[in-house]
């Protein structure tokens, strides 16, 4: 692995991008899970796929678009989808959760149309769906770095407001937390989803945002502890997943998700055994 890092640029780009994603995805995911909006990452990932497939369609129509990183098309579509979700949530005040499947369905529909027009699946698209170590370029790593910096500035600047929004949205309205913070939050989520697609894959990125939080919820008591443990688990799964994927020639996104699932199952089993042991002692 060390030799690969020294000799191959894409390995360095993948590892650095993975470390950044392993940090920001669970970090922002903690706020998403607490707000019971876990499925929003799935919806935005499908919208991101629509943006990427649209970019590939443009490439087939004109070589002028070939130099544009598809990640930017994905980010643009994801941001638009995020804003539409928030708009629909305000329109359906009593049924806010319906906004997510609406946008998810639209994303899937657009993806199917654009992929068909762009002559179907290719190896690059498969790599974007499930993650690929060799596909991570310098521009991808720079994009991830920019997104990570934006995420950190946003969260540290508005942590108190985001905390209140996450636990009591009605109270946030009472005390006058600006609506634009909520819109910025949803845009940040869209950017994280899009930035994670090269390493984790579009269809699996939501797992990296939610599974570490789900595991941390079982072993922590406070919100700050939840964030710290989620990040630790995210980093461990990404680094471990990249190493395993490199040696076994597997999709890194799939390995990362499976590692997190195994950790979750192991945590649940250990807690069950612990409870039984305590009952046996008593």
From TrEMBL:
Keywords: Membrane, Transmembrane, Transmembrane helix, Transport. It is found in: Cell membrane; Membrane. Gene3D superfamilies: ABC transporter involved in vitamin B12 uptake, BtuC (1.10.3470.10). It comes from the Bacteria. This is Metal ABC transporter permease. The chain crosses the membrane at residues 12-34, 64-86, 98-118, 138-159, 171-193, 199-219, 226-248, 254-273. It holds the Pfam family ABC-3. GO terms for biological process: response to zinc ion; transmembrane transport. The keyword Transmembrane applies. GO terms for cellular component: ATP-binding cassette (ABC) transporter complex. InterPro entries: ABC_BtuC-like (IPR037294), ABC_TroCD (IPR001626). It comes from Staphylococcus carnosus. It is a multi-pass membrane protein. Belongs to the ABC-3 integral membrane protein family.
């Amino acid at each position: 692995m060390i030799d690969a890092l020294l000799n191959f640029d894409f390995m360095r780009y993948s590892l650095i991008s993975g470390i950044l994603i392993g940090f920001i995805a669970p970090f922002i995911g903690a706020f998403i899970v607490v707000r019971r909006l876990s499925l929003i990452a799935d919806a935005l990932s499908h919208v991101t796929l629509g943006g990427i497939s649209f970019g590939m369609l443009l490439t087939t129509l004109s070589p002028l678009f070939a130099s544009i990183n598809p990640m930017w098309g994905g980010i643009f579509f994801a941001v638009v989808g995020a804003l539409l979700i928030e708009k629909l949530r305000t329109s359906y005040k009593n049924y806010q959760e319906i906004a997510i499947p609406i946008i998810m369905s639209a994303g899937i529909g657009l993806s199917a149309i654009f992929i068909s027009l762009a002559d179907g699946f290719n190896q690059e698209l498969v790599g974007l769906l499930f993650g690929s170590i060799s596909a991570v370029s310098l521009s991808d790593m720079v994009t991830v770095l920019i997104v990570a910096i934006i995420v950190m500035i946003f969260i540290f600047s508005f942590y108190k407001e985001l905390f209140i929004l996450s636990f009591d949205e009605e109270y946030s309205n009472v005390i006058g937390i600006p609506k634009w913070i909520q819109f910025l939050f949803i845009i940040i989520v869209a950017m994280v989803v899009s930035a994670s697609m090269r390493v984790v894959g579009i269809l699996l990125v939501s797992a990296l945002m939610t599974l570490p939080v789900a595991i941390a919820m079982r072993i922590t008591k406070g919100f700050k502890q939840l964030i710290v443990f989620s990040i630790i688990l995210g980093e461990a799964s990404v680094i471990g997943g990249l190493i395993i994927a490199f040696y076994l020639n597997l999709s890194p996104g799939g390995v990362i998700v499976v590692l997190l699932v195994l950790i979750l199952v192991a945590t649940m089993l250990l807690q069950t055994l612990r409870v039984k042991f305590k009952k046996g002692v008593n």
